[in-house]
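A reminder before we start the practical. When you read a complex entry, don't treat the lines as separate problems. The point of joint prediction is that each chain is placed relative to the others, so the output describes one connected object in space. Small molecules and nucleic acid strands, if listed, are placed in the same frame. In the example below there are two entries. Take a minute to note the order of the lines before looking further.
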Amino acid sequence: MYNANKIRSKILIACKSGSEGHIASAFSIVEMLIAVVNVIESAPGDKEFLKDFVLSKGHAVLALYALMNEMGLLSDTQFSNICLNESALVAHVPFVPSLGLSFGTGSLGHGLPFAIGKAFGRLSASAKDYDRPVYTLVGDGELNEGTSWESFLMLLKFRRINIRILVDFNGSAERGLPVESALKILTKKFRAVWIDGHDINCIKSELDPGFKGTKFIICNTRKGFPLKEMIDNPTWHHRIPTEGEMHQFLSYFNGNRGD
Amino acid sequence: MRKAFAEFFKEELASKENLYILLGDISVGLFLDRDGSLPSKVINMGIAEQGMINFAAGLADEGNTVVVHTISPFLLERAYEQIKLSCGYNKKKIILVAANGPYDYHKLGPSHHCPSDVTLMSCIENVSVYLPSTIRDLYCALKEVVENDGASYIRLTSRVSEIPVSSIAFINDDWRSIETTNLEDTRPSKQGIPARGCLYVCIGESLAYAVRLRLTEGDIWWTTRPNAILPLRASEYSRIIILEPYIGNFIVVPEEVKNYSKIERRSFSINMKRLIQPNMGWEDFE
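Here is the predicted structure of the whole assembly.
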């Protein structure tokens, strides 16, 4: 089991080193990522996390980089170069096939229909990854985008596809458009659960890899969790910590269990 | 040309497992089997162009070749960001087939016009662009894009030219010609060869313009690729008129040709065409 606090520490380090990144958005998805990796690694057959997973909420990429480093998919050297000159590891999910990143995201609303297309492709009897579930993680604000509506229509058309849609519901976008109300209506036609997005075991149990079909796992999260200075604080959406804050935050994570 | 496109891919589907055709709720009837159903790999994705491109990218990510087909402004302008990222940045093999040329739907108004298609595609790397003028051109282009890696854009047109094979000469891989024996000794050309008079350089539907409006006081050369380089032999002509049925100038004229020939370039205007008129767009060639 990967350690959530260790991943969060790495997120802070990467952001500070590269002077770029969305820390709070990355923090809110850590438990979801760990749960998905655990489920994929426990499944029979090839264990290829990045082939099965689409991070549509591209600006949370620091969490993905941190996890990839923990998994050995990103070397320490590559990790230390995030957002530095000559690096392809930008502050949104990049297209770097040599690292297993086959679809860069960053503009919201692209990853979900892409994941649906992947899942549909896996229904073909000749598909290499026949019927393996595709996991995608979208943000709640991302669901404002028009392609989300188009995706819901596709999900209704292609009932047989095997897909898990995790929604990072941190509520930060409700000040714009009312996603929560829309989501409750639209997910009625599917298997859908609303759970604690920071409870790894709960998320794992709901990912349900044996189920054949579409399932929404809507994860109630706190943007910036678990740091009280960051939680629901909009100034932390796109901010680099000071040296003092780095010391304070890393001490907090070093002194706490995160698994 | 739309029918020919469907016939080509129906045949391809019979032999290729990993080919998908996504339709934006158009041309559906052209793909129906005898029992009235669509083949399993032909999917009507409805009127959701942005999602359709991303869905195509997902299918391509699983090792498939994917054709996406709808009307040009919705395919390109509405889903431009998706094409930029899925095809240009993420390099997914998607064959974009626009149902129509810029003003084929001239009576439907500016919402259905797309003279900007070549300009838009020229700003996205990794997308090869084809504007076939004849059915033969179309088949050549389709064979090429199915075999090639990378994404491509093919513009169909209702303004098709039917040129008998016997009238066509092949200049090189990119250029074909219909030539007369119309020689005009108006000036000394290079190498002492008598200069020819006028050459019309065409692409896509402008071949139909040149042929139908009987511009045969000159020779006609045409290509399917907007960024094709005019062969040096063009310098044998005293006057070259390049007719590009899109906004912008893309056909490349080498310096050596510019040194010998008078070049005139005509392309579609950026102004929206609000009033119905026959052969809309071709007035920009006058």
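Discuss with your neighbour: Residues 4-18 of chain A form the longest helix (15 residues). What might explain this?
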